[in-house]
Amino acid sequence: MIVKRKPLNLAERLYLPAIIGGFKVTLRHLFKKKVTMQYPEEKWVVPPGYRGAPYLVKDQEGNTKCVSCQLCEFVCPPKAIKITPPGPVVSNADRPNAEKMPKEFEINMLRCIFCGFCQEVCPEEAIFLQQDYSLTGSSRKEMIYNKEKLLALGGTHAGIQKWKHKLEEAKAQENFPVKV
Amino acid sequence: MTTQETAKPAPPAIEKIKVKVDGREIEVPKLSPDYTGKLVPTTMLQACDAAKTDVPHYCYHPKLPIAGNCRMCLVEFGTPALGPDRKPVMNPDGTPKIAKSPRPAIACATPISPGMEIYTKTPTVKQMREGVLESLLINHPLDCPICDQAGECKLQEYSVDYGQSASRFVEPKVHKPKAVDLGPRIMLDAERCILCTRCIRFTRDVAGDDALGIINRGSYNTISTYPGMPFDNNYTLNTVDICPVGALTSKDFRFQMRVWFLKETKSVCTSCATGCNIVISSREEKIYRYTPRENDAVNSTWMCDYGRLNYKWIQREDRLKDVLVRGQKSSWTAALSEIAEKLKQAPTGSVAIVASARQTNEELWLLSKLKAKLGGISDSIERTGDADKLLLVADRNPNTNGARLTGICFTEMGINLPKIADGIASGKIKTLIVFGEDVTKHGISAELLGKLETLIVSDILPNATTAAAHYLLPGCAHAEKRGTFTNTKGRVQKFMQAVQPKGDARPEWDFLHDLVYNVTGKNGFLTIEGLFNEMAKDVPAFNGLTWAALGNTGVTVTI
Question: Residue B322: CB partners within 8 Å, gap ≥ 6?
Fold first, then answer.
């Protein structure tokens, strides 16, 4: 199909009105409030609920919450999480009544897609997507965060401490029924 | 369950009776074998099973005596109503009138009768199941994140399928001992136990070691051994398999891997000649556990602890990974063509073969072809241990009968070994082919090996013979290849590949095929299926067998 083009009128052929129109837009923005910021000197305020990098958190007493159930590893769509279970002898427990703790917990931040499934699936409230959005490293290896790094970055998250609570409950029952 | 085996007790013919399960009429035998094989009246649960209707159950296990204590299999039922004249009452449409039982019954222990109707989907049954589950969950801890059973736990499964969505229980749960050391291989978590007594019945009635019992009363009921007596027989780990919850867990598998990550591969245990059917659980090329697989002709649903824990050598760091020609790393093509050249030039009678009864039928058959071509002498090495009265037999080679049937050795294994040693000493035997055995421990010393012109060795782990080898060919464990074994009763069973071979290692049948082809000039099948079928045509005992016909549970041949 041949499109019929309307011949340009005088104003259009002059070209100037369009130029002036363009400059008007430029001038208007020149005196407006600026929307850009001087990144990285100036940092963006992360809104609440933002899904940044997932980190492991500690409870209010500074103990590891993760029990190495591996549900996050299972649910992780890009397979970024790799957990090494402790095996029969749990030697690294830092929490009372800790039957199981991860021996190693690695998140490959290059693979992570920040979907938040790990946080959603965690039965222990031990992993949270936090506010870090700019993750950098000079090698691929450096971008695999290990347990120490994840715990250090994650900070604390107060919770119900169910394992401690369970231990207290069991202790209260220790003298009942009467032991023979 | 093999179809051939269940159909076996044909004479005398068992009377069949008709029952209705949820309105669908089926015909079931009046008598069914119990855990010992004795014929007892068929139960409602077996009838429901035949009708492909799921009835949830915890304490019932087809291979154990009936206990009827978990109450999970409660169903409603009715029987044909009888009039005062003891004749069935008929509905106006001519069908028999059904008198519905006022009480439910446990399906696992109630025998069926002709014309019985079983209802498993009524609101009452649903409510009863919810009630039983609620009762079981009262004191059950919320340990799922740290429980090894999670993922294969009947309590989890039935709670999802038949349970209530929320708990009404607000009081503190009763706490019982956790991580109790019950025996050298078993860990008990008393809190998780639902007291189905499967473990007690198994160890008393199947393993024959009355080691477990329930102590204390009411909510404090606990599984326990007699004080000071550890739960230690060769079948303890079967209790872990049959435990429907995470109360009994294996110390070996404890906190190793969550079960939902494990890839399951059908295989056969190689620790003795029984050839128990197993499932190999692996993840990312690492084997985590063996579990028994049901085969009524071999191992029912059990296996011994000795065989179950004998898998760690597959992952050993010192596994042979490289093809070595006189100590130098080489390639398969180079090494195999060199060996073929040597064997072609070898005069008749100058070659001896020591094969292993841990090799597969196909591999032994290929070796016997090589032997026939070279006119050599061959034998294998016996491996024995103590037998027990359930599954473990004295013969610890998985394929002794395979070695006999393929003509590698005679009925008495090892009688040719002194002849081979003498042959080497006198200089008659110049080439020795050794597969999977350390001959220095069986009469052919390292000095004798030094006299050989050519020593061709294939093995999995290093030993004195592999150290002396001129040609070292790294082989595969059974978990890394496919093949068949012939067990002590002559059952030919196939096994599948679970993990990849380590390093340059190749399945023995694979490179033996190349070697036999190079030496004899005759081509054969490049796949294990074709190779097996070719062997079945050649070996009289295997005539008529095909790889496909072996199925998952194997076929018995005459030995």
Answer: B329, B472, B474, B503, B504
Domains of chain B are 2-131 (3.10.20.740), 324-557 (3.40.50.740)
Closest-CA distance, A162 to chain B, in angstroms, reads 10
**What pairing do the DSSP bridges indicate for beta strands B431-435 and B351-354?**
parallel
Cis before A40? omega within 30: yes
Q: Does residue A176 have a pLDDT over 80?
A: no
Instruction: Show which residues on chain A lie within 8 Å of chain B, measured between beta carbons.
Output: 67-71, 73-74, 85-88, 90, 99-100, 123-124, 162, 166, 169-170, 172-173, 177
Locate B392 and state its tokens. Answer: 């473990």
Hunting for tokens 């079948």 — which residue is that? B235
Phi and psi torsions of B379, nearest 5°: -160, 175
Both structure tokens of B189? 């978590």
Closest to B115 (Cα-Cα) out of B80, B82, B90: B80
Longest dimension (CA), chain A: 110
Place of tokens 């085969």: B295
Distance CA B519, CA B341 (A): 8
For residue B377, the cross-strand partners are B352
Place of tokens 């919770």: A159
Q: What is the pLDDT of residue B1?
A: 38
Q: Which residues of chain B have pLDDT under 70?
A: 1-12
A-chain residues near B257 (CB < 8 A): 70, 85
Q: What percent of chain B has pLDDT over 90?
A: 83
Look at strands B286-292 and B277-283 and give their pairing: antiparallel
- The answer to whether residue B148 neighbours chain A at the CB level (below 8 Å) is no
B462, with CB counted inside 10 A (0-12, 13-18, 19+), is: middle
Residues in chain A closer than 8 A to B220 (CB atoms): 177
Distance of alpha carbon A111 from the chain centroid: 12
pLDDT band at A178 (very low <50, low <70, confident <90, very high): low
Contact: A87, B254; criterion CB under 8 Å: yes
- Give yes or no for a contact between B555 and B487, defined as CB atoms under 8 angstroms apart: no
Place of tokens 């993990």: B499
Q: Nearest Cα to B445, choosing from B471, B418, B409? A: B418
Model pLDDT for residues A1-60, shown as the tens digit of each residue: 899 999 989 988 899 999 999 999 999 999 999 888 899 899 889 999 999 999 999 999
CB pairs under 8 A between A and B: 53
First to last CA, chain A: 100
- The identity of residue B516, as a single letter, is V
Å between B207 CA and nearest CA of chain A: 26
Interface predicted TM-score (ipTM): 0.85
Is the bond into B12 cis (omega within 30 degrees of 0)?
yes
Q: What is the pLDDT of residues A133-155, one digit of tens each?
A: 999 999 999 999 999 999 999 99
> What are the chain A neighbours of B237 within 8 Å (beta carbons)?
none
- Euclidean distance between CA atoms A146 and A105, whole angstroms: 6
Counting Cβ atoms within 10 Å, is residue A30 exposed (0-12), middle (13-18) or buried (19+)? exposed
CB of B252 within 8 Å of a chain A CB? The answer is: yes
CA–CA dist B559, B547 (Å, integer): 19
Nearest to B304 by CA among B229, B397, B357, B239: B239
Residues in chain B with CB shorter than 8 Å from the CB of A74 are 258, 260-261
Q: Among candidates B273, B253, B116, B483, which has minimal Cα distance to A85?
A: B253
Which of B421, B455, B469 lies closest to B342, judged by CA? B455
